[in-house]
Amino acid sequence: MNAWLLLLGLLSAAPVLALEPQIEMSPRQIEHLNIQTGPLGDSAQVPLLYAPAKVVAPANHERLVTSPQPGLLVQLSANIGDTVKKNQVLAQINSPELVALQRDFLTAASEMSLAELDYGRDKKLLDEGVIADRRWHETETVYLSKQAQVNSARQLLQIAGMNEAEIGRLRVSGRLNGLLPIRAPMTGVVLERMVGVGARLDMQAPIYLLADLSELWLEINIPQERVHSLQIGDQALVEHANVAASIRLIGQSVNQDNQTVLARAVIDGNGGGLRVGQSVNVQILQGGPRRNFKVENSAVAEYEGRHYVFVRNAAGFYATEVAVNGKQEHEALISGPLNGGELIAVRGAAALKAAWLGLGEGE
Asked: What is the DSSP string of 229-278?
């Protein structure tokens, strides 16, 4: 029998009632009308609003790689998007200023070596009573001064980018080298390259921007008229991505250009493929005081501005009024006189609605 003919027969045979909630229907009728049932899905959250957001890295996870000395950039070893390790060489510059610092260090080291010989000799003579205390103190003062000069020259080389091993080799070999390696200050990803090979760099000129992407944030623009409903701990779901974040901060100022308030959400996990600088749309979810259930949109019928689902029972289906608290793509969040254990019509709700309204015809 044609399913719709069966439905018309059901309507014509129905008693005249004023939209009684019970829709009597046999299992055979349910089968012919292709009505399918499914369980309710629990949901502890209610959709609050949609808002645009931007993916960012925390400020304390970013590091700017700069030139410690003026010079000519002769080599770049990392490209945008590369993952680099701490102390990995990212670039090299040719710096005459570095040569001058190395020369000053070698000069100071040589003068300290001579002062160290005088220090050792006069210490022995003092112990033997050959020289006066005054001469010993003068020798000691000169030695300590030369030692301080060496330490100062070593620190300037370290600031310039040379490590202890390189400084040690310089002191042993005495060979000056103007090529200065620029190393990564942290393990991270190259987000930006500011210069190209051949550029003449000033001191502290930026070369790379690195970021540790183990933690990502969402900067969400909340309309100022909706910010009062937002709470710390609310969840932000990124559209078209299996990514969730928790709101940790709600700004205290309004952006004058677009009249929005900044909310910051920390992304749970590794970001699910999101990238720094990416613009996304997010849905803010909030815990509600009532128990909510997730159902397919097709399971909800609307009549005269009210919403209903059809609950399966022994006699057929029972129309139950519910509140639709929000929608997420193909699902609706509802609440009402439900305990969560019911089976509801997830397919064929339109046919049930027609049967239900037909019961009231003639009033």
From this structure: G--TT-EEEETTSS-EEEEEEEEEEE-TTT-EEEEEEEESTT-TT--TT-
3-state secondary structure of 95: coil
- If pLDDT is split at 50, 70 and 90, which confidence band does 286 have? confident
CATH number at residue 332: 2.40.420.20
Strands 41-56 and 279-296, bridge-based pairing = antiparallel
36-91 pLDDT per residue, tens? 998 887 776 667 788 999 999 999 999 999 999 999 999 999 999 999 999 999 99
Q: Check whether 217 has a pLDDT greater than 80.
A: yes
What does each C-alpha distance from 125 to 132, 192, 275 come to in angstroms? 9, 63, 71
Q: Which of 241, 267, 287 is the last residue of a domain?
A: 287
State which residues form the domain around 321: 3-44+289-359
CA 291 to chain centre: 30
Residues 147 and 176 in one domain: yes
237-246 confidence digits (pLDDT tens) = 898 888 889 9
Asked if 231 contacts 247 with a C-beta cutoff of 8 angstroms, the reply is yes
